[in-house]
Design goal:
Layout lengths: L2 E7 L3 H11 L4 E7 L8 H5 L6 E5 L10 H13 L6 E6 L8 H10 L16 H9 L1
Parallel strand pairs: 1-2, 1-4, 2-3
């Protein structure tokens, strides 16, 4: 079962390197978009950090917090990744780190093969977590 990890990054290159190394697995490929405004990183170094995963780094869009470009970047990375027909696509920020090992993650998805893990709510009144938060704020 193959996994594509889509990462949107803008700074903190040491953490991004750690994230790439933690995701390195023969079943994973990694697609990274780095904010076009960013500096201080080396694409070749990032693409050569792994032993098993293929890593592709792009820097096409300028990203601003909360801007529509974030959606454009997600679509851009998905379009790059869907060419390889993965079983699962995972969206990360460059500041995320997995809290479980690759062994655990791979076993989890094998056990839950074919299940989708996405959630959204179109009516805020249906999401009790948000209601609880709103009442406590």
């Amino acid at each position: 079962m193959r996994h594509a990890y889509l990462i949107i990054a803008h700074n903190n290159w040491m953490q991004l390197k750690l994230l790439i190394q933690l995701l390195d697995n023969r079943n994973n490929d990694i697609y990274i978009h780095i904010d076009r405004k960013a500096y201080g990183y080396n694409i070749e170094e990032l693409e050569n950090l792994t032993l098993y995963s293929n890593v592709k780094v792009y820097s096409v869009f300028k990203n601003y917090w909360g801007s529509y470009n974030l959606v454009k970047i997600e679509i851009f990375l998905l379009n790059k990744a869907i060419k390889c027909n993965y079983s699962y696509y995972h969206l990360f920020s460059g500041m995320d780190l997995p809290i479980k090992s690759q062994r655990y993650i791979q076993k989890f998805f094998e056990k839950n093969k074919g299940k989708e893990f996405i959630h959204f709510v179109t009516d805020i009144r249906l999401n009790t977590d948000i209601e609880i938060w709103r009442r406590s704020a």
